[in-house]
Amino acid sequence: MTKNISIPQLALSLLLLAAAPAAAQTTPNIAPPKSQAEKGTGIGSAGKVIPVAEYYEGGQAAMYDFIGKELKYPLMAKRNRIQGQCIVSFILNPDGTMSGVKLVKQVGGGTGEEALRVVRLLKFKAPEYPILTSLPIVFKLGVTGSNATEGQ
Questions:
Q1: What are the residues whose beta carbons fall under 8 Å from the beta carbon of 128, sequence distance 6 or more?
Q2: How does residue 142 score in pLDDT terms, banded at 50, 70 and 90?
Q3: What is the dihedral of CA 77, 42, 144, 109, to 10 degrees?
Q4: For residue 74, which of 149, 137, 127 has the smallest C-alpha distance?
Q5: For the segment 17-39, what is each residue's pLDDT rounded down to a tens digit?
Q6: Residue from 50, 47, 61 nearest 92 by CA
Q7: Is pLDDT at 79 greater than 90 in this prediction?
Q8: Distance (Å, rounded) from C-alpha 139 to C-alpha 114?
Q9: Does position 73 have pLDDT exceeding 60, yes or no?
Q10: Rounded CA gap, 107 and 141, in Å?
């Protein structure tokens, strides 16, 4: 028992078969919302794991939440629309104190000084040995809901 299939019907069926895998791949990819530090919202670093954060009470997320609350976007940087990443280097001593706090990279407009000020406010737990580390602080304009962008 054979059916006679016309060429247009055959072409249509082949087209539908070829389109089926492509249609299956076009489902929307719904990802869970990212945390404030992962979004690059003016604080934190874009999803990088900071090893010294394990010595901060509450971990990396708590550390960048604290930085976000304390960070004030410098007026000069805001007026000149200066954005970027500042890097602060320091030694975390075995007693939990910091020494040798210095600015490794800055983007200008007072951002480096503000990054230094905020990093000096951090309180770490005591590691077993001294750790030389660096901490990135991101300054980004145009993001709502962050003290870092309110120009305080």
A1: 94
A2: confident
A3: 0
A4: 149
A5: 555 444 444 333 333 334 443 33
A6: 50
A7: yes
A8: 10
A9: yes
A10: 13
In tens, the pLDDT along 107-127 reads 999 999 999 999 999 999 999
SS (H, E, C) the chain: CCCCCCHHHHHHHHHHHHHHHHHHHCCCCCCCCCCHHHHCCCCCCCCCCCHHHHHECCHHHHHHHHHHHHCCCCHHHHHCCCCEEEEEEEEECCCCCEEEEEEEECCCCCHHHHHHHHHHHCCECCCCCCEEEEEEEEECCCCCCCHHHCCC
The tokens for 119 are 């990093």
Distance from the first to the final alpha carbon of the chain: 82
Task: Report whether 92 contacts 125 (CB < 8 A).
Answer: no
Give the predicted TM-score (pTM) of the model: 0.63
Which amino acid is located at 14 in the chain?
Answer: L
CA distances from 60 to 43, 45, 77, 142 (A): 12, 10, 26, 24
